[in-house]
Amino acid sequence: MRIFDIGTKDDPGEVTNRVLTVPNLLSFARIAVLPIIYLDLVDDRLLRAFVLLVIFAATDWLDGYIARRFDQVSKLGALLDPISDRVLFVVVGIGFVVAGIVPLWVVLLLIARDLAVMLVGGVLLLKGRSQLPEVTRIGKAATFGLMWAFPTWLLAAIVGDGPSDPQPVLNVLAWGTYLINIGLYYLAAVGYARTVFRSGR
C-alpha cells in the first residue's frame, strides 16, 4: 500500500484553500475529457478511448503525488479527486455498456456502492460532523484497481475482434481485476459505515 503514500514528507504542508494548483488542474482535465471518452466508446473509436483512459488512470495517481511532494494539498483537491473517480465510473461505465463491452450490472454495482457511501456521509453531516472520515487504504486500492479494469477490458476488445469477441487472456484479467476490487470497494464501504455507527454511540 506504500504506493499511495509516495511523495509524503515527514513534515507535510498545510492544507490550503488554493484553487489553481497543478493537482487541481489535472483533476479538472480528467473530468473534462470524460465526454470525449464516452463518445469514442459509443462511436467505436476504441483505441483513442483506451489511450485517454490510461492517461486518466495515471494522472489520478500523479496528482496525489504532486500534491504531497510539492505542498499543493488543498481542500478543493480533496473533493475533486474522488469526484473525478466516481464520475469516471458512471460516464465511462455507461459508455462500456452501450458499446457492449460489459453488462449493465457491472456499472450498477459501482453506482449502488457510491450512493450508499453518499448516504452514510449525509448521515454524518446531519449528526454535526464537519469533517468526513478519510478514505481508507483499502478504498484507495479498490478504486485504483477498478480504474485499471476498464482499460484492460477495452484493450481486450481492441486486440480481439471487438467487444463481442475480446481477447480471452486480457478479458479474464479484466474480469479478475474487477471482481477482486469490487469486493474491496464494498469492504471499504462497510468500514465507512462502521465509522458512522461508532460516531453515534
Plain-language structure description:
Helix content is 74%, strand content 0%. By secondary structure, the protein is an all-alpha fold. The protein has a single domain (9-199), classed as Up-down Bundle (Four Helix Bundle (Hemerythrin (Met), subunit A)). The model has no long low-confidence stretch (mean pLDDT 85).
CATH fold assignment: Four Helix Bundle (Hemerythrin (Met), subunit A)
Any idea what the CATH architecture is?
Up-down Bundle
Just give the CATH class.
Mainly Alpha
The profile of the biggest β sheet is: none
Contiguous runs where pLDDT drops below 50 for at least 5 residues: none
Number of helices: 6
Secondary structure: elements and pairs:
Elements: H1 22-42, H2 46-69, H3 75-99, H4 104-126, H5 137-159, H6 168-199
Write a concise keyword list for the protein shown above:
74% helix; mainly alpha
Offer a concise description of the structure.
This protein has 201 residues and is mainly alpha-helical. The protein has helices spanning 22-42, 46-69, 75-99, 104-126, 137-159, 168-199. The chain has a single domain (9-199), classed as Four Helix Bundle (Hemerythrin (Met), subunit A) (Up-down Bundle).
